[in-house]
Amino acid sequence: MKSKDEAENAAVAPHPRLDPYYEDERGRRRFVRDIFDETAPDYERIIRLMSFGSGDWYRRDALRRAQVREGMHVLDVAVGTGPVASAALALVGPTGSVTGLDPSFGMLAQTRRRLPIPLVQGIAERLPFADASFDFLSMGYALRHVADLKGTFEEYRRVLRPGATALILDFRKPSTALGRRLVRIYLGTLVPFVARLAARSDKADLLMHYCWDTVHRCVPPETIVASMEAGGFRGVTTETYFGVFGEYKASAA
């Protein structure tokens, strides 16, 4: 059992610094923004290769299980090239809406070509939206790029209506030694190699190596759960699929 102080520290602990890529928080923001800007034209192809084409089905199923339905107004944080937003758009129908937010102009430009939704440049820690603006908030595989977890979830709670749902999809470090070895081979070696071939870009290779390093050093699930609770969410549940895909779902208090 954790002490009260340990639980509070876990809830506010930032994600670990990755020294090979940047030296401080300012450098982290610049690195993440630039690497996604530079790889945006190839990103959709890379993630399809990573998931063997199954990503669209999984994202839509995750949103459906989280009860995204027709008429909802959804905010997709870290929209990227729009894979989660696209799945949400199909579920909310013509009476609902999906808004995408991302710090990368390159990613937003790619999404603008694919989806007829409002897009906003911004970061998770400071959402440029009014209080109680949305019925549902999603974030797909980007929580590892956030420094202040508690502050981020406080912002998520602020822009959600009471009783609304937040769904966080992210990678999770496997719990077994064998699982960690397999994921290291896949994300740390195979995916960067395939990304480099597919994109013919050193930056794509760098992005996939960075992806593996963020998974390898990511905070544990209990820290994310504690951060969501400290940020004002209740009923936090978490599930793991295939040993590496984590889902965190909670209601705005």
Total DSSP helices: 9
Calculate the terminal CA-CA distance, rounded to whole Å. 25 Å
User: How are the strands of the biggest sheet laid out side by side?
Assistant: 3-2-1-4-5-7-6
- Please mark out the parts with pLDDT under 50 across 5 or more consecutive residues, or reply none: 1-17
Summarize the structure.
With about 250 residues, the chain is an alpha/beta fold. It is built from nine helices and seven strands, in the order αααβαβαββαβαααββ.
Task: Please tell me about this protein's structure.
With 253 residues, the protein is of the alpha/beta class. It is 49% helix and 20% strand. The chain has nine helices and seven strands, in the order H-H-H-E-H-E-H-E-E-H-E-H-H-H-E-E. The protein has a seven-stranded mixed sheet with strand order 3-2-1-4-5-7-6, with helices on both faces. It is globular and about 45 Å long.
